[in-house]
Design goal:
It contains nine helices and eleven strands. The chain is of the alpha/beta class. The strands form three sheets. Strands 3, 4, 5, 6, 9, 10 and 11 form a seven-stranded mixed sheet that branches. It is rod-shaped and about 100 Å long.
């Protein structure tokens, strides 16, 4: 006997049309279930009969009755389609149970994502979210993340990820008020930055400052830099989105900037793995797109 896999199979459209006709006993009801016309269902069933070379159903007034062969075939089809439906349901339930795995900067997770996460859960209470903060988001590429948010002045290039600009915000030179009480100029202040970091030292030069002439407060960890600024240990460049509340409450102040740097800022990019996304991940992406730019 020839293997079923090697035999030409009827079209899935015709099989679905017959399956629904058998379940409902009516071309009209089958058409409603499939969102097509009654004539289209009848035509597909007749095409299936022609393909198989055997009558499967006959009209009986407004109803459709199956032949003996049609009943046996309908039972086998129903088992097959039900198995597919259960397999799809199990797959979706399994994927829905997985958390959305987000990698982002430590400060963005603490000051933006976590404080507003309750809003997402209010809209989608069944979706778990796992936030993985890191001082080096690029290093998380090997962690099988669903999403990542990274900051930079230029668009990152991550193989296997699509980059989408999520928001732009000013990058501000700030310091605690007590550090500015004696009216010291920016060049007279200690500055918090990672010694040797080309990006940070470029910012200082654009401020008209010479990194080599400044007192560098390098605590050895980028994670501690914002805390150092808040404690008055030095000035630093910080994205406005991260320190909005501190500025509003007067706990940090913006230093004077040279003309032309007022519009200077940083960008946050959403890194989305190329390919299909789980439904829960799509929900979180939509929420991020609506939430972060509104800040």
């Amino acid at each position: 006997m020839q293997s079923p896999g090697r035999v030409a199979q009827p079209s899935l459209t015709a099989l679905r049309a017959f399956d629904q006709t058998a379940r409902h006993g009516s071309f009209a009801e089958a058409a409603r279930a499939l969102n097509v016309t009654q004539a289209a269902v009848a035509q597909q069933v007749r095409a299936l009969e022609a393909d198989l070379g055997v009558p499967l159903a006959r009209r009986a007034g407004r109803r459709v009755e199956l032949t003996e062969t049609g009943r046996r075939f309908a039972t086998a089809l129903a088992e097959g389609f039900d198995a597919i439906r259960w397999a799809v349901a199990d797959m979706r339930a399994e994927q829905a149970a997985l958390p959305v795995r987000l990698g982002t900067t430590i400060y963005l997770s603490q000051t933006v994502i976590l404080p507003r996460l309750h809003e997402f859960w209010h809209q989608h209470p069944g979706v778990s979210v796992s936030v993985q903060p890191s001082p080096d988001v690029a290093a998380l590429q090997s962690e099988q993340l669903d999403l990542a948010i990274c900051a930079g002045r230029t668009k990152p290039d991550w193989p296997g990820y699509d980059m989408e600009l999520l928001l732009e915000c000013p990058l501000l030179p700030v310091a605690a008020p007590r550090l500015l009480q004696d009216g010291r100029a920016p060049g007279d202040l200690p500055w918090v930055w990672t010694a040797g970091d080309a990006g940070e030292e470029t910012l200082l030069r654009e401020m008209g400052l010479d990194p080599a002439a400044l007192r560098n407060v390098d605590l050895g960890s980028p994670f501690l830099q914002l805390s150092a600024v808040q404690q008055g240990l030095g000035a630093a460049f910080v994205p406005e989105i991260i320190i909005g509340s501190e500025l509003a409450e007067g706990r940090l102040r913006v230093l004077p900037r040279p003309q032309g740097l007022e519009g200077w800022g940083t960008r946050y990019y959403l890194a989305i793995p190329s390919g299909p996304l789980r439904s829960n991940v799509r929900l979180f992406v939509d929420w991020l797109r609506k939430t972060l730019p509104s800040r």
